[in-house]
Specification:
The protein is of the alpha/beta class. The strands form three sheets. It has a seven-stranded mixed β-sheet, sandwiched between helices. Strands 1-2-3-13 form a four-stranded mixed β-sheet. It has a four-stranded antiparallel β-sheet with strand order 11-12-15-14, with helices on one face. Strand 11 and strand 12 form a beta hairpin. It starts with a helix and ends with a helix. The mean pLDDT is about 95. The structure holds 4'-deoxy-4'-aminopyridoxal-5'-phosphate. The site of 4'-deoxy-4'-aminopyridoxal-5'-phosphate has 15 residues, from helix 5.
């Protein structure tokens, strides 16, 4: 049996796969498979290795921790580096107020906990999320997610008291004003704002298509929250840790969220997630109400300390801006040759290109997929996204070497031209 046949026989098909590359080893922005083929990785394990695969400082920190202890459960026998990482996140997460943190293991769990904390702090139950948003595959994560296929199909009923408003995407005909008007209507028709615990959004939608929340929208949401005593939750699971050219995507905004969820690149390839927020809000749940056996596992904590050091010492926010502008310039230069390109966007190095069919002018998932497969064949791993599946998002490690990056841009250009021909 081939490995793919064995996989199909042994693993639930519910775990979708974008490639059939079985990884053998990886370093920075490159992955080698079992057959020795080399790939440039523009997926980063879905935005997890902003600091590259196996960054030497991350690996050294993990090795040192492995030699001390690997698990005690912080709720049973605590450890200092958990406390220290919380102190570091409290200091760097945007918001000019006292903060506290909890650690969990996955992004979905961070979202679940942010909702629990918001409900405990407000004594209210309703949550508002946005169309196209993605918040994870747990029940609350699914309920909050604003895309049906494949995330919600067959898994209902979803938890109640979750409402959706449209996310402003002018490219798809939804302006900031329209989105805010729908929210107002929601308060009049569906849910009393005095019953709303939180509004949750991604400052740049990730899975939904890499659409940044306009500054005016974020400011208006903050005002609405303040007016009605609602908490604002920024889901920074995909946007955090230098991806957008700042440490957090909320750093681009004048206003701050009350709670921030983090995961993915926080620990450079190890499972760690966090919720950081206003100290008094974070303290609302009673002792024992939050936590989990593996939450804040020492290996992940050690890795995260190294990740924060690397982002600062290697200037990865600046680097993200440089790489992103090179990528966007290259894509811009291809607009004439590739008429399917309708939009090139994204802050820092959280970039995407969106495609319509050249003839029908409708969103073309087929074209995005064609580009992805041609590039894969040429040795570049790309990911698609978007409610219509017609977006290619770029999530290369921010530590990618210049030579490897140039090579990837050449493959991308050739793939776009070939797909359009
Ligand atoms: N929130 C956002 C914004 C995400 O992008 C993701 C993962 N793609 C999640 C939550 C869920 O994270 P995890 O897969 O670690 O549960």
């Amino acid at each position: 049996m081939t490995l793919t046949e064995r996989k199909n026989a042994a693993i639930s098909r519910g775990v979708g796969m974008t490639t059939q590359i079985y990884a053998d080893r990886a370093e920075n922005a490159e992955i080698w498979d079992k057959e020795g083929n080399r790939y440039i990785d523009f997926a980063s394990g879905i935005a997890v290795v902003n600091t590259g695969h196996r960054h030497p400082r991350v690996i050294a920190a993990v090795k040192e921790q492995l030699d001390r202890f690997t698990h005690t459960c912080h709720q049973v026998v605590p450890y200092e580096n958990y406390v220290h990482l919380a102190e570091r996140l409290n200091a760097i997460v945007p918001g000019d107020f006292a903060k506290k943190t909890i650690f969990v293991t996955t992004g979905a769990e961070a979202v679940e906990n942010a909702v629990k904390i918001a409900r405990a702090a407000t004594g209210r139950s309703a949550i508002i999320a946005f169309g196209g948003g993605f918040h994870g595959r747990t029940f609350m994560g699914m309920a909050l997610t604003g895309k049906v296929a494949p995330y919600k199909i067959g898994f209902g009923p979803m938890p109640g008291d979750v409402f959706h408003a449209p996310f402003p995407v002018p490219l798809h005909g939804v302006t900031v004003e329209q989105s805010l008007a729908t929210l107002k209507k929601l308060f009049a028709a569906d849910v009393d704002p005095q019953r709303v615990a939180a509004i949750i959004l991604e400052p740049v939608q990730g899975e939904g298509g890499f659409y940044p929340a306009p500054a005016a929208f974020m400011k208006a949401l903050r005002e609405i929250c303040d007016q009605h005593g609602i908490l604002l939750i920024a889901d920074e699971v995909q946007t955090g840790f230098a991806r957008t050219g700042k440490m957090f995507a909320m750093d681009h905004h004048e206003v701050a969220a009350d709670l921030v969820t983090m995961a993915k690149s926080l620990a450079g390839g190890f499972p760690l997630a966090a919720v950081t927020g206003r100290a008094e809000v974070m303290d609302a749940p009673g002792p024992g109400g939050l936590g989990g056996t593996y939450g804040g596992n020492p290996i992940g904590i050690a890795a995260a300390h190294a990740v924060l050091d690397v982002i600062a010492d290697e200037g990865l926010c600046d680097r993200a801006n440089q790489l992103g502008s090179r990528l966007k310039q290259r894509l811009e230069s291809l607009r004439d040759k590739v008429p399917e390109i309708v939009d090139i966007r994204g802050p820092g190095f959280m970039n995407a290109v969106e495609f319509n069919d050249a003839a029908t002018k409708l969103p073309s998932a087929d074209f995005a997929n064609k580009v992805r497969l041609i590039a894969l064949n040429k040795g570049l791993i790309l990911l698609t996204c978007g409610v219509y599946g017609n977006v290619i998002r770029f999530l290369s490690p921010i530590t990618i070497q210049d030579g490897v990056f140039s090579e990837a841009l050449d493959i991308l250009e050739a793939s776009l031209i070939e797909a359009s021909a």
